[in-house]
Amino acid sequence: MKITGIEAIPYAIPYSHPLKFASGAVETADHVLVRIHTDEGITGVADAPPRPYTYGETQVSIKNIVEEVFAPQVIGLDPFDREKVHAVMRRTINNQVAKGTVDIALWDLAGRTLERPVHQLLGGWTDSMRVSHMLGFKPAQELLDEALRFGEEYGITTFKLKVGRRPLSLDIEACHVLREGLGPDVELYLDANRGWTANEAMQVLQQTDGLGLTLLEEPCDAKEAMSRRRLVEKSPIPVVGDESVPTAGDASRELLSGGCNAICIKTARSGFTEATEILGLCTGLGVDVTMGNQIDTQIGSLATVTFGAAHEATSRRAGELSNFLDMADDLLAEPIAIADGRISVRDVPGVGAEIDGEKLSRYRTDR
Ligand code: MUC
Ligand code: MG
């Protein structure tokens, strides 16, 4: 079997409810659909969500690196020789989302060829994940209303609150209002997207003590190595690395230097292959993992649940899988359903993302 071509198709779908957080905001899903074609007529597909404010990749840069740099070196290779494709991609540093998307498309291709679901090829642990919903910047009462609505409509009982605002009292108040309004049984954790200093994060932890928060994600820039290490040592809850750990090498550096003691795995920027390496590192060291969301479409969310449900360690905690609900539309032919707070994997060959051709024609921006 040979790879005959790679397409990177830019498209744009607006958000009905844009998400705001400390490092940016997403108003439109300016994503790239990657399709890897083969001489056997089987195609693998995956979605790339550029996040310029986080990783420096844009829709244009992802399209270019995939079509102009990776594709010419990868065409002609057997798609099952994944390590050879990775050797090509490793020569280029960074560009994690572009690389991750090519990797997921290769796994999708493998699943479709072998006629097996990819969650089984990866590990086959279970068939669904609990869903954690992300709450963006809003006044405290609106956050509570949103959480209550998601609890009622979808059965979701885990929420990640976006924090990192100044004055700190904005987020501290939001934590208190949410805990008061949601009761003790709902899981609440925080993600500051580097919005604070490590010492500010410490202050927030002190002033939210007793609220039962479970995790603190990316409180400050990982470059604040000394203060961050002090925060990790003193924090009563795990400090999760997210944008500081897109690769296995980054994860090992942050864990071993004490910059974090839990890891957020995102398939959008690590693919399935590097996510597997990161997961192995975490289980070996005995640190917790979460399955994160890069404000993914339904295609990206299917990839996350495919990886998350495949392994025991990634399915212990709720996965961040619900951001697609804030989009006005999606390319997926058969929409994802959230029932009783869970999303199921698809029992079909590959990752299960069938694309609606009419929608792709409507939303693609290159024609
Ligand atoms: C998150 O967990 O940080 C925000 C920016 C990004 O790249 O991902 C999101 C969610
Ligand atoms: Mg995060």
Written description of the protein model:
By secondary structure, the protein is of the alpha/beta class. The chain contains 13 helices and 12 strands. It has helices at 52-55, 59-74, 82-90, 96-114, 118-122, 140-154, 168-182, 198-207, 225-234, 248-256, 267-285, 298-310, 357-363; strands spanning 3-21, 24-38, 43-48, 128-135, 158-162, 187-191, 216-217, 239-241, 262-265, 288-291, 319-320, 342-344. Strands 4, 5, 6, 7, 8, 9, 10, 11 and 12 form a 9-stranded mixed β-sheet that branches. A 3-stranded antiparallel β-sheet has the order 1-2-3. Strand 9, helix 11 and strand 10 (288-291) form a beta-alpha-beta unit. Helix 11 (267-285) runs parallel beside helix 12.
Q: Would you kindly provide a brief summary of this structure?
A:
With 367 residues, the chain is an alpha/beta fold. The chain has helices at residues 52-55, 59-74, 82-90, 96-114, 118-122, 140-154, 168-182, 198-207, 225-234, 248-256, 267-285, 298-310, 357-363, and strands at 3-21, 24-38, 43-48, 128-135, 158-162, 187-191, 216-217, 239-241, 262-265, 288-291, 319-320, 342-344. Residues 140-238 form the Mandelate racemase/muconate lactonizing enzyme C-terminal domain.
